[in-house]
Amino acid sequence: MNLGLQPLCIKSLSSKEVVRVAAGAHHSLALTAQSQVFSWGSNSSGQLGHMECPSTVPRLAKMSEGIRVWDVAAGQQHTVLLADGDCFQPILYYSGQQVRDGASSSAPPETGGYTQQPVLLPFCMNLGYVSSVFAGGQSCLALADRNVMGFIASLHELAAAERRFYCKLSNVKSQILRPLLGLETLGAALGPALNPLLQTLAGHFSRLCHLTGQHSVSLTGFLRRGRQRDVKGLVMLEHAATFLDTYKEYCSSVGNFLVMGGFHALAKPSLDFFGKSPELLQRLAESSEESAPLSDLLAFHIDVLHHLVVNIIKA
Question: Phi then psi for 261, rounded to 5 degrees?
């Protein structure tokens, strides 16, 4: 790989909402607000979490469905990822050259001395509530709070729920709302009265989505700070008026669109578009019914635009 003597902009990550970066000996990691991990550099030991070898441009690490990463660390030839799983207690993933701690017999599965994609560390559930991970040389470190009850547990539960919520909102925005707004037939279907109302609704939803992402990142950072925590510094508490005002504006735009018959007018162009990919709606709706009517799935996601955001206030 060519060595750069000056910092260069990584343009492929400019729109990814990167919130954290880490650098190992010969590889780098970038974590986004949507809990995605991009990696690039040397992949001699599988430390990038994907099969590209080497990778000169950032590529997504291969994580299992539903795993949301919220902290990353890079060592000499390995990567450690802190993530949310099926429960609120954090879990650890590892990729790269094996690292054995003299105090523990636990180690990642062997694949010729290294892993080829991130694997779950089975002993992580015994560590308590891990709040951050570190790596350097051939070592790893996890900072954990053994107090599994009360305030710490509640914080982790809230942060995990908020990260999941933001990922959900982002998927609805990018995979449903944005494609709908890009339909060439949308203007004719809605007419000159409804189209501006939908644009306004979409703008307020995007704003709420952005604020939710900020709150999620704020909560995650709050957990990482350990004993230096000050709950008053959370974004939602510092800027509560902004959250409430934006939510009121969004509710007003939903009401205006509803009373003007906007959702009814939106049904046909939406079904014409999403009818080509019903599995997308099923996946985002987390529906197990393969034969669920498209109209029901679409109605669910239109409903999401309103009811999911209520969680911002509840949080």
Answer: 75, 25
Structure tokens at 272: 């014409």
In the structure encoding, which two tokens stand for residue 238, read together?
Answer: 């510092």
Q: Quote the pTM value.
A: 0.80
Classify residue 301 as exposed, middle or buried by CB count within 10 Å of its CB (0-12, 13-18, 19+). buried
Q: What kind and span of H or E run contains 232?
A: none
Cα distance between residue 153 and residue 147, in whole Å? 8
Q: What are phi and psi of 93, to 5 degrees?
A: -120, 150
Query: Which are the contacts of 42, defined by CB distance < 8 A and separation ≥ 6?
Result: 1, 25, 26, 27, 48, 54, 77
The SS3 call for residue 245 is: helix
Choose among 248, 236, 223: nearest CA to 71: 223
Q: State how far Cα 46 lies from the chain centre.
A: 23
Taking residue 250's Cβ as centre, other Cβ atoms within 10 Å add up to 22
Segment 53-97, tens digit of pLDDT = 778 889 999 998 889 999 999 999 999 999 997 777 899 999 998
> Contact 16/2 with Cβ under 8 angstroms?
no
Q: In the chain, at which residue ranges do the beta strands (DSSP E only) sit?
A: 18-23, 27-32, 37-41, 55-60, 68-74, 78-84, 91-97, 114-120, 129-136, 139-145
Q: What angle do CA 48, 166, 70 make, to 5 degrees?
A: 35
The single-letter code of the amino acid at 80 is V
Distance of alpha carbon 131 from alpha carbon 305, whole angstroms = 31
- pLDDT tens digits for range 143-172: 888 766 677 888 888 899 999 989 988 988
